[in-house]
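At this stage, I wrote out one protein, both as residues and as discrete backbone shape codes, and that material follows here.
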Amino acid sequence: MSVVSVVVAIIGFALATVWGGVGIAGLAGRLQRNKWLGVRNDDTMRSAKAFTVANRAAGPGMVAAAVMTAVGAGLGLAIGGLWGTIFVVAAIVVSMLVIGIVSGIGIRAAAVVPPEDDDTGCGVGCCSGGDEASSCADDHAAQADDPASDCGQSSCGSCALSGMCTNETAQA
């Protein structure tokens, strides 16, 4: 048994553990919106509900990918040598393809989730920045004069800048 095949198998087991944990947490609805784990893109990150729906939809595939990777890593250790290494790498590649496919399914599921109102009571993802005492009408009036007036003042962005920071406008 070569050192390389053992190292690759350990990497496989580590990936299987992460993918399995994310899949199980997603299935259970316990995976919180974050910037590191789970299915993440503009549609899934727009609300906690969309993130949960996407990860619930992708959860079974993530768990399946974790099982495939763990089995591949175990068989790779049993086989050893060059063929064991190739077997583990193949299991990882196939698992990554499965994760890509189920992530797409999760993104499609999140895209149909209706937008939620934000905490300010101003509507959907709007009225960022400024003090909490200001009204939404004031925020919208200020944004009409200078769409970038609230840049960097909150984490949710601006109604006036909606779509300007992503490639949505470039595709239009």
Summary: The CA atoms of residues 120 and 133 lie 10 Å apart. The mean pLDDT is 80. The radius of gyration is 22 Å.
